[in-house]
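Hi R.,

Here's the chain you asked about this morning:
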Amino acid sequence: MTHAIVLVEAERDAMSTLGGRLAEIDNVGQVYSVTGSWDFVAIVHVKRHEQLAEVVAAGIGQTDGVARTQTMVAFEAFSRHDLEALFSVGE
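And the predicted structure, written out as tokens:
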């Protein structure tokens, strides 16, 4: 299982609707609106690393209202306390 954190910058006119559209993309587990340099954080869960391109580039990156993204792939979880729920895909 591969987990990725995708930072998303939204176009100004998409701020109110983009989070919901991102959450509807297959393999996107959660979407959070956040403060700071980025507008949203999407948590992606895929069975195979190769699937990331489909989800991030073809899914998230091509969604209307997305200005740019930055993707971070999770290598290892150090605290199981809250991360198990965060990275759960309901298997």
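The mean pLDDT is 89.

Let me know if you need anything else.
M.
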